[in-house]
Amino acid sequence: xxxxxxxxxxxxxxxxxxxxxxxxxxxxxxxxxxxxxxxxxxxxxxxxxxxxxxxxxxxxxxxxxxxxxxxxxxxxxxxxxxxxxxxxxxxxxxxxxxxxxxxxxxxxxxxxxxxxxxxxxxxxxxxxxxxxxxxxxxxxxxxxxxxxxxxxxxxxxxxxxxxxxxxxxxxxxxxxxxxxxxxxxxxxxxxxxxxxxxxxxxxxxxxxxxxxxxxxxxxxxxxxxxxxxxxxxxxxxxxxxxxxxxxxxxxxxxxxxxxxxxxxxxxxxxxxxxxxxxxxxxxxxxxxxxxxxxxxxxxxxxxxxxxxxxxxxxxxxxxxxxxxxxxxxxxxxxxxxxxxxxxxxxxxxxxxxxxxxxxxxxxxxxxxxxxxxxxxxxxxxxxxxxxxxxxxxxxxxxxxxxxxxxxxxxxxxxxxxxxxxxxxxxxxxxxxxxxxxx
Length: 438
What we know:
By secondary structure, this protein is α+β, with helices and mostly antiparallel strands. It is 42% helix and 18% strand. The protein has helices spanning 5-11, 68-75, 88-94, 119-131, 137-156, 163-171, 185-190, 193-203, 219-230, 280-293, 299-305, 338-355, 359-376, 380-394, 399-408, 412-422, and strands spanning 27-30, 36-41, 47-54, 98-103, 108-115, 209-215, 255-261, 267-274, 311-319, 325-333, 429-435. The strands form two sheets. It has a six-stranded mixed sheet with strand order 1-2-6-3-5-4, sandwiched between helices. The protein has a five-stranded mixed sheet with strand order 7-11-8-10-9, sandwiched between helices. A hairpin with a 4-residue loop joins β4 (98-103) and β5 (108-115). It starts with a helix and ends with a strand.
């Protein structure tokens, strides 16, 4: 579910591009119970993806019960009233398919990729998961152990594993983004069956979900099966807990933090506020990020890796969130103190803001963005997730197509103007990761 921070940043440099070079065609409608259905045909391969995205992530959790969305990512594979424990994935693998799930701050996503003739199986599995999940002692106890073990492996006992936790707890003091997705072991361990049932009944309901079918299928047959398997699932009865996006107060002074970890090499992290995913400013910040960090001729690479040689690696990333998110940098020093590295990182960032972008630099980066756009949805799995995300976040599925035009209209002057709104010294968070002292 979570990646090592270094991998996260390096793979995320152009990740938030969410459009295809050619428009994605789809049909969508609602069932009477509120389930939103999106159908997109692609007959290039004899496969189909069935996915369900629930509009619940860690930001919807209560402060004393964190980690529940991630816990349910695991628990919902445990079995249902009609699917024995530990056999959910076997149905898919026996059919020659694959399946997975992931949780973020904002949503939880499940999918199966199957041969086309097993579409009905995928729909039955997801309808079972929505209607008949088992929330009982044996399954909950099993998944408590699994989730808490994952906490140790990916965060608590891994070098730099606490980085995302440190980033978000420093960045958000009021908004519930202030705890990480994986949550607290104490909260998960001490939660009751009733706590988990209440969380399920609030969020894992058809009127808080999007069902997406993408790939090689017959449209009329798919609609018939969707009706048969999902139409009778009752809609939710509880008001859904949703935090307001603008509740985090603006910082008035920079923040510095030091973390001592079981590491050999120090690491510098800098964090600034960033616009919410999909907003007009967001697209400009993606381009700003690419100029700093994407490719061998990026500002970080030429300035402090190859140039001054004070960094072994320096990268930046936009963290795409439904509510206002974060822009962050990460750098490893090359035989210099972190204070020296921090000054050099800042000189690159603020130098870009002062100098602006050359025509050649801007054109090269926009070509990279265009390439990323063209490749971002070249699999049916990618299309399914992007369609679901577009509707979940914006109630506008065509966002997957509109994003392409948003990048096409950006100017280099606009990129700098927008970046200056967010890259503010008073808003800066500096985190020094240092080896533990003996």
